[in-house]
Amino acid sequence: MDEAKWDRESGYIAHGTRSSRQRWKTSWSTVAICSFLTLVVLKMLSSRDAIPLLLGLGASVTAQISSYETNYASPSQWSESNTTTGMAWQWSEYNTTDGSAWQWGGPWQGESGYWFDEFEGVLSTMQHTYWNGTYWPTTLQWIGALIDTLLAASEISFTNALIEDNGNVPGAQTSLSAIQAEIQEYYEQIEAYYGGEDTIQIFGAAYDDAQWVVLEWLEAIRFINEYDAYASSSLGQADISRFAHRAHLFYNIVQDQFNTSLCGGGLTWNPALAVYKNAITNELFIDSSIWMYLYWPGDDNNTDPYPSPNYINATNNTLPSLPTLAVHDPLLLQNAKAEYAWFKSQPFADSQGLIIDGFHISDNQTTCDEPDMMVYTYNQGVLLSGLRGLWEATGDSSYLTDGYDYVEAVINATGWNSRSRSEASQWAGLGRNGIMEDYCDAPANCSQDNQVFKGIYFHHLDLFCEPLPTTTPLVPDLTYTASSALAAQHANTCDGYTQWIEHNAYAALSTRNDSGIIGGWWGAPYVNKTQDAAPEYSVSTPYGSQDIRNNPELLSQSPWVCNGWYCDSYGNGKYAPTYGVGRRMAEVMRRKRMDGKLARRDVNDEGRGRTVETEAAGLGVVKAASDFTMKRPSS
Question: What keywords are annotated for this sequence in UniProt (predicted)?
């Protein structure tokens, strides 16, 4: 078995040791050279003269080993070190002449090979630890769709490595054959999840859940087409039609749910509850609409409305035939444009420019007059890929400009642009010390949902920052290309985010335990903490907010329970029958039971501990670091 494959199967690479092993070999190479030279000298010296040389060689070997242990121990070792002896994380390696510690990308800053290896390792650890051959059994359905999306996106990153470097990523311990083997292995898992996905359950859930499925299978189609363009491969070609049909089925759930009778537009979150126009559902509607417009190839099975052959028996419901939808249907572009125009017209941004969770409607009102000021990391990022798609479809650069503004607001809210160490250490809105956090991270009370949010942010930032095409449009005779100046501006602006992304990826890697699993609170090692709860670093949620993602029992109370005059007329979507209502509330209760019973993974895990969700979040940011540091193919 070759070494690279052994690394992936054992999870050895996933312990952050790629660069460590490389430097270890370098250290021993130095020792070997010293030894050879010493033997030559010994031939020329008496045994009495040789003794000091031997002692010196021993000291050299000891120094080499000590240097390795001090400077190149893996992040997983740093994060759980004894915090009474100094910094658990090697921030002491930081060179103060390079800037500020809270703006440091780690000792391998800018090394694309290091980040590519770590990306491979995190993905390998996630799949070898949590994948059972069909699905990820400990997670929720919408998160399963997200993880599958990350898997397909990883396949695109592997394909880019083949296109750009022919598999020989500079500085990485990989090869053309190794990457091709990974592509085959992970595609088989994507294919298996198509059959393992509980489509009946998620079909009857909330409107946000349905749209994760749309993006999931469009990302898989995107990979198949990109890999075929590179390798002229048949891999996945036979699956495109069924992947496209599933995307169509789930988009049809929300296709006509943009409603102007309340709040002037937008989608409600959950037809089982009182009207709540929230950020995530509407951001996803931008994304799913524009991605359907750009990437959906049509549907050979255009009329079958059922997500599963067992749907009627399981639900006792029948559905109307699936409406016809054309490839690149103008309706899809119109939906995306109308949705973003409405979103931008509403006061979704707080005083820091961060996107709040959503809006309720007061009794006897029709406007969104009751904001929920809660701020979550994923709400800041999901619309970014939609804005990128809107530029592609319209050529309107204002969509990109808006995206840059959203990104800058988030970077500022992590304390990245602070002027002093003390200022950087204070909560800035979505983190501190330049490291992204959700409110639930430090107190270790994140729900299953919230544990994956940060990874979602970095995945969509990664999509937003893909290079703009300058010569060949994405869809000939339909989409736009950028001028050389605009493409360069976009590339330079996005390059400005790279060090911050590396800083966060390095932080995430530093939380790994002995099994290589990433923790949820990325900022813990910076302040000499483990993944245990740290009340002294907890902060109050924003005034006027309800943290329903981590306190789902709130959904059974006002203002979430539907009791207004509009419930019967507005709250019953075409695919939201009683079955869907019951399943959604049952899932809420199941989350509470799982959160209470989930065993800790090590002594420093509190709350839900390290899970497939925390590992997937880590994958999102580490993959982004790899993509941003590796030169991407130009169009």
Answer: Hydrolase
Residue 634 has pLDDT above 90, yes or no: no
Q: Is the pLDDT of residue 590 over 50?
A: no
| CA dist., res. 314 & res. 607, Å (int) | 34
H or E element, residue 33: helix 18-44
- Checking 573-577 for CB contacts under 8 A at 24+ apart, the result is 573/207, 573/253, 573/257, 573/271, 574/253, 574/256, 574/320, 575/203, 575/204, 575/210, 575/252, 575/253, 575/319, 576/204, 576/271, 576/272, 577/204, 577/315, 577/317
Identity of residue 212:
W
Average pLDDT rounded to a whole number, residues 322-326? 95
Strand partners, 270: none
Q: According to the 3-state scheme, what is the secondary structure of 319-345?
A: CCCCCCCCCCCHHHHHHHHHHHHHHHH
Orientation angle between helical segments 279-295 and 207-231, nearest 10 degrees:
30
Q: What is the pLDDT of residues 440-493, one digit of tens each?
A: 999 999 999 999 999 999 999 999 999 999 999 999 999 999 999 999 999 999
**pLDDT confidence band for 606 (50 / 70 / 90):** low
User: Residue 332 contacts by C-beta under 8 Å, 6 or more apart in sequence?
Assistant: 289, 290, 292, 293, 296, 325
In the three-class reduction of DSSP (H, G, I as helix; E, B as strand; rest coil), residue 174 is classed as coil
Report CA-CA distances (Å) from 431 to 40, 139, 439, 524: 58, 26, 8, 11
Highest-pLDDT range among 51-55, 130-134, 542-546: 130-134
Helix axes 176-196, 141-165, angle to 10 degrees: 160
Could you tell me whether strands 431-432 and 435-436 are parallel, antiparallel, or unpaired per DSSP bridges? Answer: antiparallel
Query: CA dihedral in degrees (160, 164, 168, 172; nearest 10)?
Result: -60
Whether 87 has a pLDDT exceeding 90, the answer reads: no
Contacts of 633 (CB under 8 A, 6+ apart): 160, 163, 164, 467
**Three state DSSP letters for 92-139:** HHCCHHHCCHHHCCCCCCCCHHHHHHHHHHHHHHHHHHHCCCCCCCCC
SS3 611: coil
Q: What predicted TM-score, i.e. pTM, was given to this entire model?
A: 0.84
Cβ–Cβ < 8 Å for 64, 27:
yes
Give the DSSP letter of residue 442.
Answer: T
Among the residue ranges 69-83, 110-124, 607-621, the one predicted with the least confidence is: 69-83
Q: Inform me whether the pLDDT recorded for 536 exceeds 60.
A: yes
Give yes or no for a contact between 617 and 451, defined as CB atoms under 8 angstroms apart.
Answer: yes
How many Å apart are CA 601 and CA 402, to the nearest integer? 41
Closest Cα partner for 531 from 443, 598, 456, 630?
A: 443
pLDDT at 100: 73
Residue with tokens 């990433």: 518
Q: Write the CATH number of the domain with boundaries 112-629.
A: 1.50.10.20
**Which contiguous run of DSSP H or E holds residue 461?**
helix 453-464
Query: Tokens for 596?
Result: 């209470």
Alpha carbon of 21 to those of 27, 30, 256, 541, 626: distances in Å? Answer: 10, 14, 55, 43, 19
